[in-house]
Amino acid sequence: MKILLSLILLSVSFSAGASIALAPNYDDFDDVVEQYIHRTFMFETVNPSDSQHQRYRALQHFRMLLGSFPQRDGAIVFPDFYGGAYVDGVGRLILLIAEAYAVEAANHPIVAYLIAARVSFRYRHVEFSYNQLHEAHNALSAAVRGSRAAKCPVAIHYLFSNIRLQENVIHIHLYGYTDELAAAFRADVFDAPMLQVVEGFIISWPIPEPTTISIMQYALAAAVTVSAAFVVCLLIKKFSKKSSG
Questions:
Q1: Of the residues 45, 110, 136, 208, which has the maximum number of CB atoms within 10 A of its CB?
Q2: The pLDDT of residue 157 is above 90
Q3: Distances (CA, A) of 20 to 10, 12, 232
Q4: Distance of alpha carbon 44 from alpha carbon 21, whole angstroms
Q5: Interval 83-138: pLDDT, tens
Q6: Among 126, 151, 168, where does a domain finish?
């Protein structure tokens, strides 16, 4: 069945034209590039009116770009100009280029090809590279662990942090946010130019109090269980006597 389905999809792709890419298969993530694409785009939503054809072409361009980057120890080594990438609302691949390395990006053969082709592709300059964001995020995590170990009172307000590639920032979520608390976090725990301190929330699910009806239901269920067990014991005893007699 899988072979038949693959042949059908392959025939559709050839009949529609060589530029149409099939939907990416995420069943196997052994390839480093596919792992990164999956992590980057698995939760992304696209407007229902968008062309899947354009989105698939954008993903194919992204594969081409990632495949041109070197790999070391099973991971992609991102160049300094790379600031991240995403697919926009109309299915185009948007490449974020660190402005300080714009010349390096323009000299990269795949980036130069995509810029010249301008098919399902656009680029946008940002301040910080992908590497800078991740290095700062790792340093932030280490600083929070150290501050908590030192019982820094500001660190207990830290909930979590996340990199927001499209905005080219790192969000730090603090519980009980105030401007004074944000300033204290930057002064006592960690600070970097790409950080944005925002208000964090603790989600709590209320546990309903047991009602009279629910307690009666539990009591009835327990009584039925005990009665059923008693009947089973009687039956076992009865059959045991017959077998012994």
A1: 136
A2: yes
A3: 11, 9, 67
A4: 19
A5: 999 888 788 889 999 999 999 999 999 999 888 877 778 999 999 999 999 999 99
A6: 126
Structure token pair of residue 216 = 């009666």
Measure the CA–CA gap between 43 and 26, rounded to whole angstroms. Answer: 13
What tokens appear for 239 in the block?
């059959």
**The two structure tokens encoding residue 80:** 């300094």
Q: Where are the alpha helices (DSSP H) in the chain?
A: 2-16, 32-41, 52-67, 102-107, 109-117, 130-149, 179-188, 212-244
Assess if residue 158 is contained within a domain: yes
For residue 182, being part of any structural domain is answered with yes
Residue 44 tokens read as 């992304």
Q: How far apart are CA 139 and CA 190, in angstroms?
A: 8
Give me 104's structure tokens. Answer: 């390096």
Nearest to 169 by CA among 211, 199, 130: 130
pTM of the model: 0.65
Q: Do residue 67 and residue 88 come from a single domain? A: yes
**Owning domain of residue 136:** 132-200
Burial of 120 (0-12, 13-18, 19+ CB in 10 A): buried
Task: Find out whether 155 and 148 touch, Cβ atoms under 8 Å.
Answer: yes
Residue 219 phi/psi, 5-degree rounding, is: -65, -40
